[in-house]
Amino acid sequence: MTGPTPYVLSESEVLSRLRSKRGETGYRAMFSSWLGGIITDPALMQIPLDDHLVHRGHGVFDTCTLSDGRLYRLGVHMDRLLHSASLARIEHPWSKEELIQMVADTAGKADIRDGAVRYWLSVGPGGFSPSPQECPEACFYCVIFDPIPLGGAHSDPLTDGISEATVRDTPMKPTLLATIKSNNYLLNVLTHMEAVDRGGTFGILVDDDGYVAESCVLNVVFVTENGTLRTPPFDGILFGTTVRRVMDLASTVLLEEGLVSSVVQSPILASEVSGDLVKEMFLCGGDTHLYPVISWDGTAVGDGQIGPVAERLTELLDGEAFGGAPGDPVDFIDVNYEH
Ligand SMILES: Cc1ncc(COP(=O)(O)O)c(C=O)c1O
Questions:
Q1: Any domain includes 87
Q2: Are residues 46 and 124 in the same domain?
Q3: Residue in 72, 182, 219 to alter for ligand 1 test, most ligand atoms within 8 A of Cβ
Q4: Alpha-carbon gap, residue 47 to 44, rounded angstroms
Q5: Are 286 and 148 contacting, i.e. CB atoms less than 8 angstroms apart?
């Protein structure tokens, strides 16, 4: 073994090391039901090691977007968190309204008006066995942090588009796991890494029968040559919030503008995309992220350019979340920064 022998750290050494390990994190506020309050020092934003969220993945999470002091689509995300928690058999004492309030209170102490929001519901700390029976108290954690580009994109995806690759060595999740937004994201991470190895970006998962499923943390959408916006059913994939908003906007605004002729959720064979059937393909997630795919496994999608549907949807999603376009009033919750 090289380096100094580890020794037992004092409380003040732990604190000073926690602080020196953290540079500028952009983590603005964290709520921990375990501690019963909000933390604003990033060095102290910690989760207990014996929380089953950490070592068993027995926790679920979700997100939303903080935009100009309002929480965008928190209610929709919270419905999915509660659905995930029930499938993961996490018993907890909170109503949807109470969970929303905890997120809003955390945002109120975050000192930023625009940011990313992530929160977890877990069976809580209690030991290292697989059984949640040893965990006396379910936990809710929430963090508000500066917005970051998904997947570390260094270019503007709407200007450049992305290349994608079919993921062949990383297996798809079984349906139960794929439909829970759980802390078991190892296969999602490996999907992304394999995609990058193959010259892609986020990766496209295709099932054993050849049907397109989803990407590592994004849903997949196509526009066919007859103008149909088509996305796979939610059977064995995540119930994406962004793709549902995309379908809403497509079946109202885009239909009216003549950019699409219909909107359907139906299975799509990957082999259909390599023919002339598909004009546009894009990935979407995280409320406002939309990535036009201009080539897949080295073959151009459509004419290899970013298409008008992807362009218009990006404008609409951004306009709604960030630009003051009306949207649905229930999708916006004002943060109180006063108290
Ligand atoms: C596996 C997977 N599919 C799809 C999505 C897109 O979901 P959303 O639009 O709600 O962000 C995500 C988002 O986290 C995901 O993890």
A1: yes
A2: yes
A3: 219
A4: 9
A5: no
